[in-house]
Specification:
about 40% helix, seven-stranded mixed beta sheet, alpha/beta, eight-stranded mixed beta sheet, 19 helices, elongated
């Protein structure tokens, strides 16, 4: 283990809020002397309390012993002004996300920095290039976007301005790695990687909500079948709809109204009505009254036998799970590839088309990221008999079955395909590499799998064709496949 008691170069953090205190804590935890600056005495005191809470939590988890905690806290001094900025190896600003306020700070503090000091902004959405213009030496300026909570989140986005020197980027990469975090380098576009590529996670959930699908069903499918840790609507409630909607509006505006990023009118209505989520006691869910449970198909006797095509493609893992659960799987050459048959009804996985467009299918299964671990599936059915078959399948698998209206892409496929579309856009715009996009979404957004990895595993052509079907079926160009899929196809 690194000797955390050895003093390393000095780090100055300006802004003692949640993010600034978190950055100061991590720097001190990794041996740096730190100056935490806040112009407001109350803000500085709050920063001191936040650092103490973080140190206490780290000690409780066994990450620090009592002596290390004392040493860590002693390495941080608190100041009301950035006096001594010339002695810092790096200055990181983490003040309020306001362009004018940040520009004034950069202009004022960078005038005091030493000849080798690097100035970094923790902005999550503002133009790094615009801020760099206010720096005394723009070659030594870059974005350095940490994620909340800073001690726990591994990802850090590094955003060079056009004037940032390669040496500055290299130094920031080394620093982030020394702090045992994962750096990803992103081009200076609105939202960088995470806030850019993640927008469809929320956008698609609100689109389904606008079509009358219950939030409990949407979240249950995105967690139970999509594999996400938290459903998009519950997550938006946690973040706060005022914040989430503001980010959506900002990115949509800065991307010159690009349809892929349009804000949701349903979320706008929540904000207008003060239903901001957990912090207001109610958003899409009521945090005062007990939360409702998502409706599911009526329980049936477990499935005993299923007929399967000779090649079931993406459904082969489902067949493996059925066998393990004691179901007999009989191969039938007459069934088309990818099809199952239960009680003379045909089941198939969704491909972006509606059930109405697939006359030879009786039960349409929404996609599942991992059939081995899934605890929910979404189905669209034509008749009560189809509903009963889906319930029998769920009973055998031991998963919850949720019925979904007949809409292009259902719930999970449409969401994952549109996340892939956003990732492909980022590739086409040279925002970041495939590896960095995937790392950013896993480590910064807590997605279970990078969208590029999922696309290549699912099949680039398959995902692209699903988007074609969804765009046509919804009559919405927002789903038109990105030109960036060609780049994924080249490496798949």
């Amino acid at each position: 283990m690194r000797d955390r008691n050895s003093d390393r170069e000095e780090v100055m953090v300006v802004g003692a809020g949640t993010m600034g205190a978190g950055i100061a804590f991590v720097a001190a935890q990794n041996g740096h002397r730190v100056v935490l600056v806040d112009a407001l005495p109350a803000g500085l005191e709050r920063g001191r309390m936040l650092v103490a809470e973080m140190a206490g939590a780290a000690e409780k988890r066994g990450l620090l012993d009592s002596a290390e905690r004392t040493s860590l806290e002693a390495r941080i001094r608190y100041a009301g002004t950035p006096i001594g900025a010339d002695a810092a190896t790096i200055i990181i600003e983490a003040i309020v996300e306001d362009a004018d306020a940040k520009a004034d700070l950069v202009r004022t503090v960078s005038a005091q920095m030493g000849p080798r000091t690097i100035f970094a902004s923790n902005t999550s959405s503002l133009s790094v290039n615009a801020l760099a213009h206010h720096c005394a030496d723009s070659a030594r300026f870059a974005g350095l976007h940490f994620f909340n909570p800073v001690p726990a989140m591994k990802l850090v986005e590094i955003i060079p301005a056009p004037t940032t020197s390669p040496a500055t980027v290299e130094m920031l990469v080394r620093l982030v790695e020394a702090w045992r975090k994962v750096p990803v380098v992103a081009r200076d576009v609105p939202g960088f990687i995470v806030n850019n590529v993640a927008r469809p996670y929320y956008g698609e959930a609100f689109a389904a909500l606008g079509e009358g699908i219950e939030p409990e069903t949407i979240d249950a499918l995105m967690t139970g079948a999509g594999g996400f840790r938290m459903g998009p609507l519950a997550l938006a409630d946690l973040i706060g709809h005022d914040i989430n909607y503001a980010v959506a509006r900002s990115i949509h505006s800065e991307r010159q109204g690009l349809a892929r990023f349009r804000p949701s009118p349903e979320q706008a209505e929540l904000v207008e009505n003060g239903l901001l989520g957990r912090k207001s006691g109610r958003g899409l869910y009521d945090y005062v009254s007990p939360r409702p449970v998502a409706a599911e198909a009526e329980r049936q006797h477990p499935l005993e036998t299923v007929q399967a095509a000779a090649d079931c493609g993406a459904l082969e893992p489902l067949l493996d799970r059925l066998r393990e659960a004691g179901c007999l799987v009989a191969r039938v050459d007459e069934l088309p590839s990818g099809y199952l048959s239960i009680n003379s009804l045909r089941l198939a996985i969704g491909d972006g088309r509606t059930l109405a467009e697939r006359e030879d299918v009786d039960v349409l299964l929404d996609i599942v990221r991992d059939w081995i671990t899934a605890n929910a599936i979404g189905v669209t059915v034509r008749t009560p008999a189809g509903y009963a078959v889906a319930a029998m399948l769920g009973a055998r698998l031991g998963v919850t079955v949720h019925t979904v209206p007949d809409r292009p892409g259902q719930i999970v496929l449409r969401s994952l395909a549109q996340l892939a579309n956003a990732a492909a856009d980022a590739l086409a715009e040279d925002v970041a590499s495939i590896a960095h996009i995937d790392a950013a979404m896993r480590l910064g957004a807590n997605h279970p799998e990078g969208p590029c990895d999922w696309t290549m595993r699912h099949g680039v052509d398959t995902v692209e064709q699903a988007l074609v079907h969804i765009a046509r079926g919804s009559d919405d160009a927002i789903y038109a496949p990105s030109a960036g899929f060609a780049l994924l196809r080249d490496v798949a």
